[in-house]
Write a structure and sequence with these properties.
alpha+beta; CD59; Phosphorylase Kinase, domain 1; Transferase(Phosphotransferase), domain 1; five-stranded antiparallel beta sheet; 15 helices; 15 strands; elongated; manganese
Length: 493
């Protein structure tokens, strides 16, 4: 008895539902003569078709009453109607009079031949054009190496006979960015032998590796800093960054070693290490000090300035500039490294690409507006100004290690006398924002014209108001004038 009762209740519910639906006003397509709008409302939507004197007319509309007898009218050669009961259901509804559907579905022999041969002929023409295009493309690739798959395979198989200089000078770009083709990058990475660990930090490790007798630097990222690896890989492979004062990128690879995934970034190797390491062990003369300062600002200008054209680049702000992220080359020029936190901006699209890295910059080098959380994160200029603050601190580190009148001080990091060795965010915020302190500039610097000029630049990098700080381009021009004033005149040829 229970199943029958349940079935009865379900049937009653369905009947009630259908009656409710039937009673609902429906929106229908309407093109009958009395319709002033393309739609009408009623209880039932319909399509009707009539043949008169050989001509067929079709109309769509609605009934204000649920007139079922009209809907059930049999379709004849002269007249037919179909009904439906949901919104706009008659818009696509079709009806065929007796004999009409047969005419439609059974085309004549000439029409049938056309229906078969026209698509077939079109297909043959398309195949012929495709074959011609492929042949032309193959001819073009044969004459001009265009980094097709075959060329990549060939280059990857021949990298053992090349040097890094050959690869980077010949194929330093895939057309849009500065990276080698990905297949070549992976091949280079798998041919590197790690020799010695030359640095460790929260980011991971840096190793000196050897590739066919040449030293390279291999930065192995920790798993918690994988976003930095992704960001650097993205920037180096999409932006033309070849510059004397930007660390040279060679390859990036995700590889499996010791049953774990390792993220590698392979760059040029500089045996002097970071500026931080170099300053620990090296006292500078004024000329070297000026050379280091000038080369860093040249690299920063290259990052900050947008270059237009096919070989252009967006503007880039570093966001983590510090002495540990600057390397010293054998010619005592610097190059800027670590673009894991960089942001990019193009004036044309006005799109600010801040990446997807949860990592923040180094607290010791943070500008006041970052520490106070007042920085305008939607404005690219704001990020450039934080780089200038950090550059001023790096300049202080360099000048402090410069010998003046036989006097030089031991290396110390910025704010060494105001915060602990590993300062917290709150430590830095109190010193920089609340107390508004800046590093103390040694008095002895003012006895030298060059170092005095550098001290003035530092102060103009440390204004609390970001808009008052110098731009990288202005600093570069000032240092160029300074360089020209101290250079010895060259003998005439």
């Amino acid at each position: 008895m229970m199943p029958c009762a349940a079935s009865g209740r379900v049937l009653l519910a369905l009947l009630t539902l259908s009656l409710g639906c039937a009673a609902e006003e429906l929106l229908c397509a309407c093109d009958v003569p009395h319709c002033s709008q393309p739609n009408c409302t009623g209880k039932v939507c319909f399509v009707s078709k009539r043949r008169e004197e050989g001509a067929i007319t079709q109309h769509r509309g609605c009934f204000s009453q649920n007139i079922l007898e009209h809907c059930h009218t049999p379709v004849t050669e002269q007249y037919g109607m179909r009904c439906c009961r949901f919104h706009m259901c008659n818009a696509q509804l079709e009806i065929f009079l007796q004999g009409e559907d047969a005419l439609v579905k059974t085309p004549s022999l000439p029409n049938l031949l056309l229906m078969i041969f026209v698509p077939l002929l079109s297909l043959l023409v398309l195949v012929a054009l495709t074959a011609l295009f492929c042949w032309k493309l193959a001819q073009h690739r044969h004459k001009h190496s265009d980094f097709g798959d075959t060329d990549l395979m060939l280059k990857a198989s021949m990298v053992g006979d090349s040097t890094l200089e050959d690869l980077l000078s010949d194929d330093c770009t895939t057309g849009s960015g500065s990276g080698l083709p990905f297949l070549v990058q992976r091949t280079v990475a798998r041919q590197i032998t790690l020799m010695e660990c030359v640095g460790k930090g929260r980011y991971g490790e840096v190793w000196r590796g050897v590739w066919h007798g040449e030293s390279v630097a291999v930065k192995i990222f920790s798993s918690r800093d994988e976003q930095s690896w992704f960001r650097e890989t993205e920037i180096y492979n999409t932006v033309l960054l070849r510059h004397d004062n930007i660390l040279g990128f060679i390859a990036s690879d995700m590889t499996s070693r010791n049953s774990s995934t390792q993220l590698w970034l392979i760059t040029h190797y500089h045996e002097n290490g970071s500026l931080y390491d170099y300053l620990q062990r090296t006292a500078l003369d004024v000329e070297t000090c000026l050379g280091l300062a000038s080369s860093i600002i040249c690299g920063l200008v290259h990052l900050h300035v947008e270059i237009f054209g096919t070989q252009g680049k967006p503007a880039i702000a570093h966001r983590d500039l510090k002495s540990r992220n600057i390397l010293v080359k054998s010619n005592r020029q610097c190059c800027i490294a670590d673009l894991g936190l960089a942001v990019m901006h193009s004036q044309g699209s006005d799109y600010l690409d801040i990446g997807n890295n949860p990592r923040v910059g180094t607290k010791r080098y943070m500008a006041p507006e970052v520490l106070s959380e007042q920085i305008r994160t939607d404005c690219f200029e704001s990020y450039k100004k934080t780089d200038i603050w950090a550059y001023g601190l790096v300049l202080w580190e360099i000048t402090r290690r410069t010998v003046v009148n036989g006097i030089v001080e031991e290396y110390r990091p910025p704010f060494f006398d105001a915060v602990p060795s590993d300062p917290s965010f709150e430590d830095m915020k109190k010193v920089v924002c609340v107390d508004q302190q800046t590093p103390v500039i040694p008095n002895r610097l003012f006895s030298d014209s060059v170092l005095s000029a550098l001290a003035k630049i530092m102060k103009e990098c440390w204004y609390q108001s970001p808009s008052a700080r110098l731009t990288a381009l202005r600093i570069k021009k000032t240092l160029k004038k300074l360089n020209n004033s101290v250079e010895k005149p060259k003998p005439e040829q």
